[in-house]
Amino acid sequence: MQCAQIQINYYYVGLWTGHDFHSQFPSFATCSKTELIDLSTVDVILISNYHCMMALPYITEHTGFTGTVYATEPTVQIGRLLMEELVNFIERVPKAQSASLWKNKDIQRLLPSPLKDAVEVSTWRRCYTMQEVNSALSKIQLVGYSQKIELFGAVQVTPLSSGYALGSSNWIIQSHYEKVSYVSGSSLLTTHPQPMDQASLKNSDVLVLTGLTQIPTANPDGMVGEFCSNLALTVRNGGNVLVPCYPSGVIYDLLECLYQYIDSAGLSNIPFYFISPVANSSLEFSQIFAEWLCHNKQTKVYLPEPPFPHAELIQTNKLKHYPSLHGDFSSDFRQPCVVFTGHPSLRFGDVVHFMELWGKSSLNTVIFTEPDFSYLEALAPYQPLAMKCIYCPIDTRLNFIQVSKLLKEVQPLHVVCPEQYTQPPPAQSHRMDLMIDCQPPAMSYRRAEVLALPFKRRYEKIEIMPELADSLVPMEIKPGISLATVSAVLHTKDNKHVLQPPPRPTQPTGGKKRKRASDDIPDCKVLKPLLSGSIPVEQFVQALEKHGFSDIKVEDTAKGHIVLLQEAETLIQIEEDSTHIICDNDEMLRVRLRDLVLKFLQKF
Amino acid sequence: MPEIRVTPLGAGQDVGRSCILVSIGGKNVMLDCGMHMGFNDDRRFPDFSYITRNGRLTDFLDCVIISHFHLDHCGALPYFSEMVGYDGPIYMTHPTQAICPILLEDYRKIAVDKKGEANFFTSQMIKDCMKKVVAVHLHQTVQVDDELEIKAYYAGHVLGAAMFQIKVGSESVVYTGDYNMTPDRHLGAAWIDKCRPNLLITESTYATTIRDSKRCRERDFLKKVLIPVFALGRAQELCILLETFWERMNLKAPIYFSTGLTEKANHYYKLFITWTNQKIRKTFVQRNMFEFKHIKAFDRAFADNPGPMVVFATPGMLHAGQSLQIFRKWAGNEKNMVIMPGYCVQGTVGHKILSGQRKLEMEGRQVLEVKMQVEYMSFSAHADAKGIMQLVGQAEPESVLLVHGEAKKMEFLKQKIEQEFRVSCYMPANGETVTLPTSPSIPVGISLGLLKREMAQGLLPDAKKPRLLHGTLIMKDSNFRLVSSEQALKELGLAEHQLRFTCRVHLHDPRKEQETAMRVYSHLKSVLKEHCVQHLPDGSVTVESILIQAAAHSEDPGTKVLLVSWTYQDEELGSHLTSLLKKGLPQAAS
To answer: What superkingdom does the record give (chain A) (predicted)?
Structure first.
């Protein structure tokens, strides 16, 4: 379950969003902790991948959320399939009434684990309907990788390929001077999706890192090998293989491995069945997202050939797909065989039937590949079980070695991650390598905790109109550094700032038609610049002489000099950082002296 | 003065060999690299020697963009990149990248194998050329280099057709390529956001046509007919159209498609279904629109079969290949019909028969008499005048430039655009350069402190009293920052130099200094209502930050000296005060 929220510049960006299954009952814990976040104040939700949008209907349909949801096209299409399958599975087993008394805290604590440890059971809900799914999905704006999306003129968000699944994205959230990367569910392995875009994550002020592998100790390649050999072994001995799985994702890679493996392993006559209400759609959709696939698969489309070899498995009748085990499947069904079906939690869906059908024979094998569920817990209600159980979790998301490689490459100023990534897993507390190690140390957050991101906004973009730019007079202060004083009119619209030239003064200074004394005070006064520099006394005296002052006397003081103009009864104190002109009320004289002093100073 | 320069090398007041050079923000971009189907000589390709007289094209051009796979937009690409020599990036969409090499190869075969042309690009050159292609997604912002970025929009003309935005800093140009503003049976409508480019370069093929809905044209469509088409594009739409019509009317007459390309072509449509229209995308799992039941592959022998039939044959302008062969075979019979579903460029047989010519001179001085009916049905997916105006309205450009059309028709459209949108509209001929001065604003970073200070003051904007923002622009290399003057001094490690004035104002007042100060205070308080006037415990008076002290005159006890002291920054108020005080104080009531 992942969910984070980032507030930038007063706009909330939600980074969404998964859910937990507590499907024995079937009710679902969603991620929103409503007292913490008022969802009607969330402006935008960014979806990372199709697994991370399963709670979307709860948010868009029931919380007052009125913002925009952004996701890539494959994410939406496959997310729809996952939700459709879920709704279909749940609706097959309608419950006349639902149990809710157990949610009482006094009863709950008496229940066996994991129920007694479950948090916030009162917020668990019934599964949504297909109608709610369609309504939720209709609120999504489709975006492409590297598309810059302007939000309110103040923030720009951009999805980048995360390499984990079809259309899976990391998100850049940036203003002109700050950059936050949200890295969730990324993979550096070469599987079917487009490789992860690492380069665009560089120069991040903050990198939020989540969705790492659930099984940091398992090597996905090794697991695939084990999967194939166990599958072959079982089938050769006349047993059946059951693979509980989601209808999209790793199954494409498994089918591709099997495509290469079956002939050499002598399995050409073994039927593969893929049973899911969305099996056909999933297989078809996988073939039309060429632009979201890895390079090898893209080039196949140019031939033109379907990018995934399961098209050929279907054509040659080796792979057959069915919406459910009723209907055509029951007449086609041959054993021994391999069945891919859901749900991987083993709590609902067609997989339940196969567990009951094959569980009693030790010839059969169930192979767990999805990492989201503890296989022991999944199997618990089916015990005692004669069938073999193989655990080959295939999780291609980043492990800790890859994370440190990534962080070295990308070099964010700060890393923010869930607390559990900053310490070794509780079961392997000696494995110091199973945690995020970076400098400065990652900032961690806990569920429902508010974390201030460690950057201070200092600058914002403003545009200087060309006419104003032409009127500026830059002067070089230091080699390579020039300054120009700017007096301009600020216009701000839709969070965009523009500087325009000041209007020409309507009244010339020192206006002649003076009616009342207060009329003369300028409304839109021209600000005087700050001064800097120092006045060299000798040159100053020379300048005075040149301008007709005579009878000049210079006295040294502790901090500088005093220049006396005896005739004019004027005294000029000159120090390193200050000049003080003391004179009679003679404006002409004062202005002459002022201009002489200013000649030696720089204006800012 | 910065400017945008546009020079068409092809498609300037003409249709064919689209190729437009654009210089923007110091970057040079070539839009499309097409061939002309009406010519077989030098005029076939754009004149690339125009781009740079000496020096390599790669050094001069920052990138090349191809809008879609039609040969009049990409046909010269291998010649340009491999024979003239260009090694920079070539951008196009994925479907264009997939289909373009196939059409190029097809074109090469007709030119070299059938017509026996020498000095033409080879298959290997097509492959090498395609290696330089970088595929782009719709709406993806592609950073060509640090300054130049391009972005593709859906154009709906053929599968994978795109419009491109080219942007450098705040200056931008949009090039439409060919586009269609009404969704058809297999593609969606072109769309662009309100991106307000400095210049919109639009095609104008159907500048004077305003087409009615397609439905009415579909009705009286079918007899025994030859339909010359290009393998990809309109062909698919017409196939879908006939397929559904045959299905509905339960027709039995065979429909043939002439080339092996078609099956392959249909396969591309299946794999790139995300580029087709909403309806096809939605239903493709149940029924793929590109799997046709009634349309069969054509064999040359079928042309002599008796009875009605419909044959789709390539190419679409009857300038070569199978469509021309069948045309020659069928032209003599008035019961036959040829339907031209698209635009034909000058010089092609298609163009000739459409302009009413019925006696055609063929190769070897042979004259072919055309007795068959000739119909023109505009199925070509270009925007019509209404569509072009619609796109201009969508994008809100500062000016418009017309290409890919005939001069006369352009003239009409140009007037229309200038009248309706009040923007200038250009229509340069090939080799003619249009120069547009631009005045880009300059982006700088403003310190948040300074900005917030100003915004807090300016909460109630008043147009008559605009508020001035005062700050210092620090320019270091290409990094421009606007900060408060204080911050600028601090950052540069400079100390402020304080300039202070103290003026002596003599007042005739025999009273004590404290009383004089009091009188000054009450006078100023009554006169300067908008300023903060204070009387301090030590006897001095302040107006804002200006200090006034009263002192006794060293010689004349009847005179008091007012010392008015202010800094340079308060000069106006200070100088105003002294002149005010110089006039003396009003007589006290006593």
So the answer is: Eukaryota
